[in-house]
Amino acid sequence: MYALVTTVRPDGDRLVVKVSGELDLDASERFRRVLREALSRSVRGIDLDLEGVSFCDCSALNIMLYLRHRALEQSKTVVIHSTSAAVDRLLTLTGTRPLFGSAAPDGDAVPTAQGQDAQDTAQDAEPDEEAFEDAHHDLRIEVAQLRRAMQTRPTIDLARGILMASFSLSSEEAWSVLVTASQNTNTKLHSLAGDLVTAVKGNALPDEVQEHLSAAVARVSSVAPEQ
């Protein structure tokens, strides 16, 4: 297990938060505290450097979504500038990457100078309306993703724990097995996790799922570094 390490440094009117280690349930409270304090101290928001994160689960994503919502309330932003493979997979699977993509809305209106006619004023106002609609749409996506993550996280984390205990895998390896099997069987991750959990209780896994899980376990085990 890799301990969570965070550093915070100023970058103009923003703060850069660099994170390395594992972002799991055990580290969630510390991660939340660091981001909350950084957001409070910043003028325009925080930039996240997550390239050193070796594992990232839904608890960390929930925190980032929550902080993004708080930032918008304060006219600030939370931007992810760099990611590791683990973070990249989670953002891709949940479809939340676009929510953390820009430090400022594109197409900001140029302030209207005194003496411009009403037509110019109306044209300048249009990007603001579009930005508002985009922000409203993003918030609806955020709420839906947050609800889904909260509903499915316990099952996914339990399935990951089952794989870790059954095959002596690390958190990262167990996550890789779940994601690989999910993609190869064209099954939603939370559905696959549910099948695995019920299998432990006595229900049989579908043959295709069992085959791809076994193959994924064999693959990560074959590339695991020697102890």
UniProtKB/TrEMBL annotation:
NCBIfam families: ant_ant_sig. InterPro entries: ANTAR, Anti-sigma_ant, CheY-like_superfamily, MlaB-like_STAS, STAS_dom, STAS_dom_sf, WH-like_DNA-bd_sf. Belongs to the anti-sigma-factor antagonist family. Pfam families: ANTAR (PF03861), STAS_2 (PF13466). Residues 4-95 form the STAS domain. PROSITE patterns: ANTAR, STAS. Residues 102-126 are annotated as: Disordered. This is Anti-sigma factor antagonist. GO terms for molecular function: anti-sigma factor antagonist activity; RNA binding. Residues 111-122 have a biased composition (Low complexity). The lineage of its organism: Bacteria, Bacillati, Actinomycetota, Actinomycetes, Kitasatosporales. Residues 136-197 form the ANTAR domain.
